[in-house]
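request received
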Amino acid sequence: MPPDLWQLYSLMFKCRRFEEAVAKLWHDGLISGEMHLGTGEEAIVAGVVSLLQEGDALALDHRGTAALLVRGVDPVLLVRELLGYPEGLCGGRGGHMHLFSQPHLAVSSGIVGASGPAATGFGLAAQYQNPGAVAVAFFGEGAMNQGMLLESLNLAAVWQLPVIFVCKNDGWAITSTDGSMTAGDLNERARGLGVPVIEIDGRDVSDVWQAAQTALERARSGQGPTFLHARCVHFEAHFLGFQLLRMVRHPLREMPRVAVPLTHAILKKDGEPFRIRLAGLRKVLAAVWRTVRDPRRGLAHDPLWRTRRLLRADLSRLQAMENDLTREVDHIIASALVGVPS
Amino acid sequence: MPPDLWQLYSLMFKCRRFEEAVAKLWHDGLISGEMHLGTGEEAIVAGVVSLLQEGDALALDHRGTAALLVRGVDPVLLVRELLGYPEGLCGGRGGHMHLFSQPHLAVSSGIVGASGPAATGFGLAAQYQNPGAVAVAFFGEGAMNQGMLLESLNLAAVWQLPVIFVCKNDGWAITSTDGSMTAGDLNERARGLGVPVIEIDGRDVSDVWQAAQTALERARSGQGPTFLHARCVHFEAHFLGFQLLRMVRHPLREMPRVAVPLTHAILKKDGEPFRIRLAGLRKVLAAVWRTVRDPRRGLAHDPLWRTRRLLRADLSRLQAMENDLTREVDHIIASALVGVPS
Amino acid sequence: MKKMSFTQAVDDALAQAMAKDPQIIVFGEDIPLLRRELLVRFGPQRVRGTPISESAFVGAAVTAAMAGLRPVVELYMVDFLGVCLDALLNHAAKVEAFSGGKWSVPLVVRAPCGGGYGDGGQHEQSLWGWLAHIPGLTVVVPATPADAGGLFLTALQHEGPVVFLEHKLLSESWLEFLGSGGRQTVQYNVPEAGARGEVPQIWKPLPLGQAIERRPGGDVMIVSAAVGVHRALEAAESLEQQGISAGVLDLRSVSPLDTTALRAAAQNTGRLCVVDEDYEGFGLSGEVAAVVLEAGIPVQFSRVCTQSTIPYARHLEDQVLPNRERIVAAVQNMMS
Amino acid sequence: MKKMSFTQAVDDALAQAMAKDPQIIVFGEDIPLLRRELLVRFGPQRVRGTPISESAFVGAAVTAAMAGLRPVVELYMVDFLGVCLDALLNHAAKVEAFSGGKWSVPLVVRAPCGGGYGDGGQHEQSLWGWLAHIPGLTVVVPATPADAGGLFLTALQHEGPVVFLEHKLLSESWLEFLGSGGRQTVQYNVPEAGARGEVPQIWKPLPLGQAIERRPGGDVMIVSAAVGVHRALEAAESLEQQGISAGVLDLRSVSPLDTTALRAAAQNTGRLCVVDEDYEGFGLSGEVAAVVLEAGIPVQFSRVCTQSTIPYARHLEDQVLPNRERIVAAVQNMMS
Ligand SMILES: Cc1ncc(C[n+]2csc(CCOP(=O)(O)OP(=O)(O)O)c2C)c(N)n1
Ligand SMILES: Cc1ncc(C[n+]2csc(CCOP(=O)(O)OP(=O)(O)O)c2C)c(N)n1
Ligand SMILES: [Mg+2]
Ligand SMILES: [Mg+2]
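response:
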């Protein structure tokens, strides 16, 4: 059965609008601390989460808002939680990185790698008391260096648990590129821990959906865990207000803030010889450069744009849907903000 | 260059006699708590440690006594430490699982997997301040499920550190068999973490020595870590006084202690249906059975016996050497015990 | 009345609960052999072995509990929590708060603790006061078989995460496993009344946060938990011979702490001596001091705790862990 | 005199030390970018990035220190120690004892801590009292740039493992990184005197375990660390207007704890109020109580601490973290 692209696109589009609205709240100062968006990974989220059923569980990382939206958590409660309102999903006590919804068996954690053990525990509960149900873990490629996640892959394999480990590989962990901090190969790693791998193009929602379908079938029928390795890009880089991205977007304002102290430092009297200092400088510049020139921020890597292309034949339906969803999200935000004494 | 089998055999023989003497001290009650011997893994210990040089470091697990002996730590201090004497290697404060020798850059830990980070740190220090030096980690196959060890493999690979990760795979972690608790494949795991693998027969000291030589050369020349995967057997199973082994050795005395409460339990009124209870019983019996029938406790798997075979041509030299070493160990134990007011 | 050893009591209470509640499952390293009597009664689905992956399986226990199971997750020793504290500190203890009170974690972490048998400083810690620092964790530390079984039942019924600690010197089976290993040649200073004692025919839950006076006393109250309670009782006997009337209060749970009993004891005797096998600084003994000071009760105070890393040598460890002599001296000092 | 912001002071002291001592190396996640000014001065061998593998790299720092390096290992937040506590609890803190005093671990663990900017309960903990419970660990918690730089130098020269905590509300750079992210639309209650202040031309080490009286006072001494010191100073001003003379004692290091200063303060004022952003139970505030009670000093005692998991919502977190109002109320209560 092929995926329903219209439905998947509508989910992705809603996620995008929703997170854009959240970004606005953040920029307006209505959200105080960190805010990690998932814009760019919508195909992975929609492709996997749309396949979940009642009784399935979801373990999220610091980028979990969109997944909860797709899972059917009340979006007004979600926004109110991000705003820290007592009427939020968790009474304003959990917040952006700690979103919990018991009816959806959905948990989040800001501790990198924690979604591994969490999904494994849900998988155990499913195996024991609700066979046929599954648990999904979302995490980044950086998390694949965190011991507890590696341990979880093995544990899920040993117990043959119905867990889908979804690695959203955007190639970055804050300012570190995958290649520089991850040796070997993630697929081989997962296999070495006893978990079969499906590698997919995380920009292609059909591809994700098909692979998730396969993994879910394996899990539901008692054949154990699967590692879904999906590449993607995060358009807002690590989090909102990310300095490297600010330098790209407002070079004149931001560059000097970085460059001036850097110049001072490199010229300081005591320290290593200049040759070594230059090696250091090259590292800094490389990171800046990789961010500035990241080709993946282009439209061609946008999962929405790629899916939209396939639906453009019926442009009026598409635009009507988009307009509806935009209005829906506007309405969600308005409802969340309205009627709540701050 | 081929290994000097006579020298390696003498090291192995000394380790064996030494640990047998330690076992006697333990049985006599002069050592109070746990005591994990390495009898059966001497080929791995001798094959690797005999190649270490001044400035090389050693990170050991709970089974580290023999490695320290081979490394050249004063054996009298070692025995006194095991006995908890103030004159011991660590003033009687570290003890069997916490043996430290600064001149040898040798550490131990009773925390499974901890030798991974420890060797990685030593490797970092070597790379930075003492290029050409290396660090060796010893651990069991059970430790390969501990996150910090997996993390360490990746870290050592990322930093290209001179670390040899030596997995002494005896197939058991206390009462758990490797196959039951480790999914996938350890070699693939190590490679997936960026560390090249050499698999060896841990009963064959030449094989170990050759592989260690290769790994050390890679490390000393800045080519990064290696994973040495060596299979072996532990003749005393997990530790001295191990219940499963006592059942094998003294079935009439030990079997009833286990069997009677087990029979009571399986017949208890409330609980799962009998079919499920039997599945449980089968698991217990299988573990007992695997221990009882472990073919590997036979002579053919003894690294000493295997090496001795190759040297038997010169029996008189062999026996003279063995006699000398036996006397030497006797003397060590006697010196350790004598002259120290308790 | 029935008599049982300490760990037998826990296992018996656990078995009683498992027979009633199919949601209780037990897992940890080597559990199929360590808890083989549960395995042959409740089968391999409910009694499971794990890899040496504490972060994964303790972390998994948290969400398994959230999904409706009642997991009892066992660690070989409380010391090994070091590798997986995140699961307790940042997850088990916080879910109820994070979810706005809507979701709880009915999890029991069971672990042997404590020293006195020569295993060295990485294997003999107590850490109960340390764990109690984390809001959201319940920490239970029984001193007798009857309390062990009853409180274990309570832990199984509790809505939040409970760390249940079994002192190895009270646990016949752990002491045999890790210490004697079948030898007759070693001796441990086992408090008999703690290692074996009368237990009820049927286990009933005991209240959390309710200390029990093991011995009344008018001059001073010695406050402790686990083996310390028995050391305190020995000390109280010695003190009696010197004309000092020392009572002994067994806390039974470190968190919640029975502040009412502590204040009453301070009020009645004017002197508290805290005997704590956990480390002295920033722990249980300090909390006891704060509780009585906050209440404005004038009191003399002393403590006999573990002040340093526990040494391996038996004679050194005996000095470092709270013992009768140190308790007697501390109390005498307060009386003079 | 020079002025610096808090984290600038630490980095400056660190750079001064690195220029003299080639054994000092710095590593942690994203360190090449977070400490880019050190990177361009000391090069990629000495300033390194790590994978998100705290257990491996903190563990590695322990033996690197034992082999003669002076590693400064950075964590993104102290909360994340949960995943790698074993390295501190069972290794760094114990090696000196285990080796019979023959080997030490000159390691500095540097981490941001504390709340007040809306990041939620898994990212705003203090945990200094919790860490101080472990014998063998030194825990430094400065409240001003001058102390931060001076104490960091001390940490670098110390023979044992030091956990050096930077409160995020005092750290311009962390607050910008994790909080404002370049926005003008958010406001944090930053104590100005803690975030920026005069620093010496050349850094000199400051003594460990030496508290400093930030404000004298005859009626009560408020004892605190980090941001709490500044909240206490605000409270003391309010109290002054009510005719109450409240002093403020800045502990600067939690372990070692300046017990002499605490006893003197108790002696002189007869009243102590401990303000602690770390959790209330079984922590720093209790230890302070024990120290004065053990000394037999009659004292009134109160504490204003974090009693629960820190909530995400800014208005809720402001109530849960110690603030001026709560401190004023606690002191008033003691005076009446
Ligand atoms: C245990 C732990 N260490 C460090 C951090 C800080 N941190 C938060 S997100 C992040 C990067 C995660 O990278 P990745 O897993 O690839 O996810 P992405 O952000 O790219 O989606 C880090 C290091 C943390 N939250 N938890
Ligand atoms: C973190 C941790 N978990 C559990 C233990 C208990 N334990 C000690 S040794 C051991 C088994 C280790 O097996 P393996 O690594 O294969 O080494 P072997 O004993 O077979 O040589 C276990 C589980 C421990 N010491 N540390
Ligand atoms: Mg990433
Ligand atoms: Mg093994």
